Amino acid sequence: MSPLIAGKRKTSIARVKLTSGKGTITVNGKSFEEYFPILFHRLVVLQPFKETGREGKYDVVVKVEGGGKSSQAQAIRHAISRALSDLEPSLRQTLKSKGLLSFDARIKERKKPGLHRARKARQYRKR
Fold this sequence. Notes:
alpha+beta; Ribosomal Protein S5, domain 2; 4 helices; 21% strand; elongated
């Protein structure tokens, strides 16, 4: 059993607990399929298990907050990858080569004074 491992993506933060089991995934108290109805998001979350061949070997309990569904799915993927590398250090190289352990630090740029948004300025008329 792993302690709570965090994964991040933009404004989403996911905390994951892995335990050996049958492969059930619970996200914020709901079933995995109920929380992520879109197939693409489910594939993103399951990617660390598929890459390492550990499908159905761990039960996952997730608490995720912030961001949208896509960002949350990627934060969960990051947290699961970190938890797997902690539980089985031999998987670290595989996960790292697939880019699953790297944190995506891109965030929204702050609004600057005198502009509409971070970079959008008022319309300019020459004549």
